Amino acid sequence: MARKKTFKTQMISDKDGIRFATPEPVAEYRAKRLQCKVIADISCGIGGQAIYFAQRCDKVYAVEIDPKKIAYARKNARIMGVDNIEFITGDALSPDTISQLPELDVVFSDPARPPSEKERNIENLSPSIPEVMKAYADRSSNFAFEAPPQLSPEKIPFDCEKEYMSLDGKLNRLNLYFGDLKKADISAVALPGEAVIRKSNVSKDAERLDDLKRYAYEPEECVTKAGLLEQLAASFKEEDGTGIYTIDDKRTLISSEKALQCRLFKNSYKVSKVMEFNLNEVNRYLRQNSFGTVIIRASIEPERYWEVRKDIENGLKGERKAHLFVKDNEAIICEVPDQ
């Protein structure tokens, strides 16, 4: 059927529509997670998420108050070859709009956020989560919402699954699942690849390391934001000496004596040298060991980054690439191990 067709075609829209459109890997993952017979996409925008829902659901109802966005969404659906979406122009909370919908398996909402908000707040979403759940209570008991990923779990005052999502190594989305959609209190997923970790009721403390082991691993941002770093580190064998090593407020690594494989690591390193952070000494070590490029992973003022990097790379002519972490006054020189 047409709705099963896969696509990588460019969406059409104005600048705002493209700016706020859901990235394809995110839309595809959520369509898998919310697959059902009948789903409503509240505030559907230009239709990117609704089109992916249409590939996996029998029927999609796409609601949008802006007639221009609905027009784009209709065109995009035709371009993508899906024909099982019913578009409804109207206020998502209006009884007249809701009366056009049948009983639904799932209601999905991507509410608007204030553009000039200094600090993200769950109460400022529009329409709000309580409003949507109340308005659609007689249509479904299963709800999914997109919320600002900057929010930490404790700032979400609802009984739901809080799923933090990374895309290409960067924190990208926060999905909230209610009703039968909830699988855990907190979870994290890394895209592409759909590597998932869910909060376990069995707590086990990970070792806190004073020194780095032979290998170091940078976790996906979604894992750290979800507060699941401890659980991830503790999931590895204790005999490998695996633990958590804190660089600074922004950088925390999982480290082990043995090479680890985990799709929730966005970067893997082999520790080459730990030494005093002295530019001349670091440069000398890098020259002597055939390094040619240095990526600095430290809290350096942006305007000084290239100045410091130029000093560290002065005279380097080798083929090896170093990743330089700085903890207090200590230089940690790493490189990506051969695959």
What is the radius of gyration? 24 Å
Biggest sheet architecture: 9 strands, mixed
Mean pLDDT: 91
Molecular shape = elongated
What can you tell me about this protein's structure?
By secondary structure, this protein is an alpha/beta fold. It has helices spanning 15-19, 24-33, 48-56, 67-80, 95-98, 129-135, 221-225, 229-234, 279-288, 302-313; strands spanning 38-42, 59-64, 85-89, 106-109, 143-147, 161-167, 170-177, 186-191, 195-198, 207-208, 215-219, 243-246, 252-256, 265-276, 291-297, 320-327, 330-335. It is elongated and about 75 Å long. The two termini are 41 Å apart. The longest helix has 14 residues, at 67-80. Helix 2 crosses helix 3 (48-56) and helix 9 (279-288) crosses helix 10 (302-313).
Question: What are the SSEs and their pairings?
Answer:
Elements: H1 15-19, H2 24-33, E1 38-42, H3 48-56, E2 59-64, H4 67-80, E3 85-89, H5 95-98, E4 106-109, H6 129-135, E5 143-147, E6 161-167, E7 170-177, E8 186-191, E9 195-198, E10 207-208, E11 215-219, H7 221-225, H8 229-234, E12 243-246, E13 252-256, E14 265-276, H9 279-288, E15 291-297, H10 302-313, E16 320-327, E17 330-335
Parallel strand pairs: 1-2, 1-4, 2-3, 4-5, 6-8, 10-12, 15-16
Antiparallel strand pairs: 5-7, 6-7, 8-9, 11-13, 11-14, 12-13, 14-17, 16-17
